[in-house]
Amino acid sequence: MPAQAWITLIVGVLAVAGVMATVNQRTRADNRAQSWSRITWCLDHTVSDDDDEAALGWDVFRTVATTPFIAKTDRRTLQAISQRAARDDLAETDDTSDNGTETETEDPR
Q: What was the pLDDT predicted at 97?
């Protein structure tokens, strides 16, 4: 095999490898973009006043956040969002009663 044929073969193999790498990178980027689109949908629903819709948003969020398409740094961001939401849920109370944890003494006057 002449040298020119070897060079043509090597250039062809490198070109095919480059195209494969580009297609792989593009597929990963598209998958991540779709995942973030779904996560945005989930987060929009989690802030709903309807409890069922908010629960659905968190259920889908949990599923989407565990997909393999999400990078480690993005996964850390999603964990921070869910942890923040959990803290906010604990901080909020719907208790509007007058019966608090403190003991109150009535003024006998």
A: 45
Closest listed residue to residue 63, CA positions, set 87, 45, 84, 89: 45
Q: Report whether 50 contacts 58 (CB < 8 A).
A: no
Q: How far apart are CA 87 and CA 82, in angstroms?
A: 9
How many residues are present in the chain?
109
CA 64 to centroid of chain Cα atoms: 6
Token code pair at residue 97: 């009663």
Cβ count near 91 (within 10 Å): 7
Tokens at 46, concatenated: 């989690």
Give DSSP secondary structure letters for 65-100. Answer: HTSTTS-HHHHHHHHHHHHHHHHHHHH-----SS--
Q: What is the mean pLDDT of each run of 10 residues along the chain (109 residues)?
A: 90 96 93 86 89 90 83 84 74 46 49
